[in-house]
Each structure stands twice: as structure tokens, then as C-alpha cells.
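Example record

One chain of 306 residues, shown exactly as stored in the release files.
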Amino acid sequence: MHTIRSSRRVPKVVYFGALCLCSIFMISCDSKSTGPNPSGTLEATEVEIASEISARILEVRKELGDVVKAGDTLVVLDTRLIALQKAQAEATRASLKAQQNVASDAVRQNRESLSLSESTLTRNESLLEQGSITLQQIDELRTKRDVTRSQLSSAQHQLEVLQAEEAKLDATLSVFDRQLEMGAILAPFDGTVTLRNAQPGEMALPGTTLMKIGKVQDIELRVYLSSSDLALVKMGATYPVQVDAFGEEKLQGKVIWISSEAEFTPKNTQTRESRVQLVYAVKLSLDNKDRRLAIGMPAEVILSEN
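Predicted C-alpha cells for this chain:
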């Protein structure tokens, strides 16, 4: 008897497909182990410059992109009306000062008269005991003393009223002085003009943005990491940052802030699935003293090399 053996040969294409699947699986696992390289756009601290008073714009001394120093004049406003109002208040104050001098003289004179009346009354009261003066004369002296005392009190109250009016005018003058200072809008810090929204001849209204100043010398990159990838960064550590505009050149970014609370991925993320994930914001600071970097440039943090 012959034993019949059955043999089946596996086609080569099956081996090739299995090999490809294994390779893809290994590559996928290796990609996950290397971690993410999160990307974002460069940003900087920006301050909106607005007027605190209503006035017409006379000059705009800085253009979009200009570098400014703290204290530089950005916008000049027309404050002539405020100057006239201040002059009017100063004239009123001078008039009050003259009235105060008159009231002070009245206080001094009434104080002297009261002193004389009291001493005369005291002297005549001793004469009454000796019978050298009548009780009616004493009553008249007392009445004169009381009238003088009342006049002194009235003069003192008048002086106090004038002094209070002067203090009120001094406060008004201080307001005018501050408003005159507001006529020159100054740069709050060193930076760059990132927005110019003012023209000579326009009205500057309180709270309306005239300019924006950005601290572009210390530019920042904000990226988002999942909780599982958060361990890849440490506070104060530096990581390579690749800016799209500079090709393969790598800059150094220092981690200056890591959010302590999770949030949903920002809406500008590409896919719906990634937008509903909880992530942690991380902020890195990049040196930009040469001002090569600009707000809005796309950049990527290299947390792991492929």
C-alpha cells in the first residue's frame, strides 16, 4: 500500500502581504513610542492703545511695524479746549484767593474786637461791685461782646467755605492737568506696532483702539498636549522649535508655562475627533531680539526625532 500525502503550497503573494502588515504594525508602534511634535502659531503679548478722553487726533507718530521704546509718543490729541477750561478754573481760583484774603482780615479784626470786648467787660464788672457803673452798662458791654463773637464765628465759617471751594477747584485743576497729559498717548513698553487704526483728523473716543503694541522681542509659541504626552515636557526645559518659514533651521524654545487644567482642543484644530479631546496648553518662549519671528508664523516643537 502506498501512503498518499497531500501538500498545499502557500502563494508568494500571501507571504508578501503578511510581511507588509507586520512592517506597518512595527512602524505604527515605533511612531507611537517616539511621541508627538505639537505645532501652533507664534504669538506675543499685545496691548491695545486707546484714548482716555474724547478729542480730535492731531498726529499719529508711529506706523505699522515701527519699533517703539517705552515712553515714545504714539498719538497726539487736540487738548486746546481742556487748556481753556483750565485757564478759566485758574481765574476762578484767583478770585477765590482774593475773597479768602478779605475773609481772613475779617476773622483777624473780629478776633481782636472780641478780645477787647471781653477785657472791657471784665474790667467794668469789677467796677460794678464798687458801684462806679450801672448794671445796664454791663448788659450793653455783654451784648457787644456777644455780637462780636457772632461776627467772628460768621467770618470763620465764610473763610472755611472759601477754602473748601479752593480745594474743589484744586481738584478740578488736577483733572485738567491729567487730561492735558492724556493728550500725548505714550508707548507703555518696548515693542512693535502691530496695528495702526488712527488717522489725523479723526475723533478719538475713550476705549476705542487706536494702536496695538506687541512685545515681539519675547515671542511665544502655544501648543497642546494630551495627558499621556504631558510628561514629555518639563517646566524651564528647552526644546528645538522648527518654524516653517525657516525651513530646517531649529530655534530653542523654553517652557515658561504648563496649564494645570485640561481643556478641549481649540476649534481651529483640523479634525472633529481631535477637537473633542481634552488637552493641556503649554507655552514656550523664543528669543526674538533680531525680530526675525513674526506673530502668526506656524511652528513645531520637536519633542522627539523620527
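Notes: The chain is about 40% helix and 25% strand.
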